[in-house]
Amino acid sequence: MKNILIFGDSLTAGYGLPAAQAYPSLIQEQLRQEGYADYKVLNGGLSGDTTAGGVHRIERWLHEPIDIFILALGANDGLRGIAARETSQNLQAILDKVLHKNPEAKVILSGMEIPDIVPGRYAAEFRKLFRELALKNNIHFIPFLLEGVAGNRLLNLPDGVHPNAEGQKLLAQHTWNKLKELL
Q: Which parts of the sequence belong to the SGNH hydrolase-type esterase domain (predicted)?
């Protein structure tokens, strides 16, 4: 079996939904349907996690080989207004740990965005950090994991923040479009 680790926060964990409706489970099903039965998707999502938490938490996932690593952290950093530089350094530390242990792993970075209504330069800096990190590390990149989902009441739970089952399908589609290039 080849392992695909999707490491993220509540978006990955499928907050408020049965595990089978979270996008990592949908990716697993897509792999099965497409004939990639030798891939196992590991859901490394933890609700509320920040990139700082992820730096410490990633160690627990490195006990088995990772063939494809999908890094989907950062949304909570943005919501909390954590400095873009700190978020970038934490994401880099996670990438370094994974690639040190799994040097042949293929990597996808799932980008996050803060709405432009946030005052000041923070939204632009936050958006830019993901693009710069992907370029610096020469890794595959999903510009905005929540594209088409963020702000759409029909695709989110009543809290307006977490994708519902239909929204999770779009997260899976965005991820699959990049993942299929690596299989």
A: 6-170
